[in-house]
Amino acid sequence: xxxxxxxxYFGLFDDAMPPGFRTTRQEYAAAVGxxxxxxxxVVDPGLVDSMDRAVEAAEVFAREEVDVVVxxxxxxAPPAWPEQALSxxxxxxxxxxxxxxxxxxxxxxxxxxxxxxxxxxxxxxTNVLVRNGRPFTSAVGELGSPExxxxxxxxxxxxxxxxxxxxxxxALVGQPMDGYSDVLATDDxxxxxxxxxxxxxxxELSEAFAAVTSAQVQREAEEVGRTADAxxxxxxxxxxxxxxxxxxxxxxxxxxxxxGAVNCHGPTLRWNPEVGITACLGVSRLSxxxxxxxxxxxxxxxxxxxxxKAVAGSALYCxxxxxxxxxxxxxxxxxxxxxxxxxxPGSTVRLxxxxxxxxxxxxxxxxxxxxxLGPATLVSLTPALGATGGWILVVAxxxxxxxRHHRMEGPNAMFRFSSAPVAKAYQxxxxxxxxxxxxxxxxxxxxxxxxxxxxxxIQLASV
Length: 463
Hints:
Layout: E1 2-6, H1 21-36, E2 41-43, H2 51-63, E3 68-71, H3 80-85, E4 93-99, H4 110-115, H5 118-131, E5 137-142, H6 146-167, E6 170-173, H7 187-193, E7 197-200, H8 202-211, H9 214-227, E8 228-229, H10 235-255, E9 260-262, H11 280-288, E10 293-294, H12 299-312, E11 316-324, E12 329-333, E13 349-353, E14 365-368, E15 374-383, E16 391-402, E17 412-417, H13 422-432, E18 438-442, H14 446-456, E19 459-462
Parallel strand pairs: 1-2, 1-3, 3-4, 4-5, 6-7, 6-9, 8-13, 9-10, 16-19
Antiparallel strand pairs: 11-12, 11-18, 12-17, 13-14, 15-16, 15-18, 16-17
């Protein structure tokens, strides 16, 4: 990630401050830059201390194609300068208030107030961001403290997640399921998030499928075999799914795609005489590579998968099947796809013929594995009329208390909400506007996703 550092300085007080004051602010900016370097390559145009320097900074950020800009003032300064510096880039903005001291001493005087005027400079600029409708997230604390480090890490994870959904287009392989109005999103709605979608048609997929060589199929089968137990899958079934996996990977690489959505249940995949199977193995392999895919043409959930993968390291496309009221949990599962990197440590990925969703050429290959116990987060994303930014990100923290329903023939988990008993929590989940598809993430991710919602300028619904 390329990080633009935007640090401002105001020379109005130079005559009133001790010699070398500007040098101390430069040293402070350097310390901030060293902290930011933990998250990527820092692009620093130098202290912005005038409108001319702000124009130069804008040119540098645009030329270097930064992925995020971190506003880290060294002191109070006119907010029109950083406003100008951001004018040439449409990227996430993180506001960093890294105080050099967390204590206000009893001998605090006017000179010290000028030297430590960072909070004033911070709120001067955040006001302008709000006035202009430019989303941002923030991290505030004492420079060098673990608390500030944690807040900054959260903000940078969120920035990386937002960058992930915008940097590359998403693919739609087949149109959404007919009648599934809860998974739809218009181009105008997607544009609110900065997301672009490209169609991959049935003829394009068929051509890519036919172009895969026997050697590529064999290599894919060997790689899959090193990760998963394929004993239950006939060789011809595995080979056909491996061919589709290679075809999808090739299309993603050729088009530089960041993820997307397939619809197996239509003429592009299951009812395509050239392909004729589901894509579960292929999308599972792509998800492990960091190119997540949802099913049924559900682009909003594909976006949620990409966000989740970026902040948590793995993300499972799923549905919430049934409440277990005595046990106080809900069954989370899917039809046979999953990010291998999200499986329980030491567990085996099982490959199974997907007889439940046979196509014109028989079954595809489903994947099944156990999920790790412990803290977890459910996520859903939907466009919504009247919502802030036109979208709602629904987030529910809880824990996975079991993963034992092997006859589901797919990844599954017993999820317990932390906020309320399962019936009440699921009622809130529905009330918040969640779709019938969700994303399951390892760990407690409400803070990360809340920061991502801030950067996207959309509504966060906490369940």
